[in-house]
Amino acid sequence: MKITQHVLLASLLGVSLVAGAAVLKTDPAKTSVSAVFKQMNVPIESKFKKHNIVIDYNAATPDASKASVEVETASLDLGEAEMNKEVAKKEWFNSAQFPKATFVSSAIKSAGAGKLNVSGKLSIKGKTADVTFPIVVKTEGGKQVFEGALPIKRLAFNIGEGEWKDTGMVADEVTIKFHVVAQ
């Protein structure tokens, strides 16, 4: 009888741990990651077509949450095939050597109702930086929606080398925007 109780207790504990796990499944069709920058002072927004986002989130305990993002750098779509090839080259993302840009959270803190502050490490083109940015969290149609924007300086990550270091043509300021839908 005692063995049965231990087995039952272990089974219930295992079920509660699985039930408490909050790794959300993202909806790729409704999720987007984009880069917004100015070229010749004209704002351009381009989407990364390939990304993998993992969010472990529970609204009741946001401080225990985690997130990781991988973006395929060669998947940036500028709307023109030649420009897409250009940004994959060594001077820009160097996608052959650095095929992915990544973000891994180190802390997610509640910042009030429907708001989080996220900190972590952003790695692009072999350079890593500590970043912190706000996120808005809401529920739409039974799904969690995470939206935010992370401003960066492209030159800090060596994006735009050689003649492209001149910020007269392409501004140094880039905003990484994301809209993640998950359940």
UniProtKB/TrEMBL annotation:
Residues 23-183 form the Lipid/polyisoprenoid-binding YceI-like domain. It comes from Pseudoduganella violacea. SMART domains: YceI. PANTHER family: PROTEIN YCEI. InterPro entries: Lipid/polyisoprenoid-bd_YceI, TTHA0802/YceI-like_sf. The keyword Amino-acid biosynthesis does not apply. Residues 1-21 form the signal peptide. Keywords: Signal. It comes from the Bacteria. This is Polyisoprenoid-binding protein YceI.
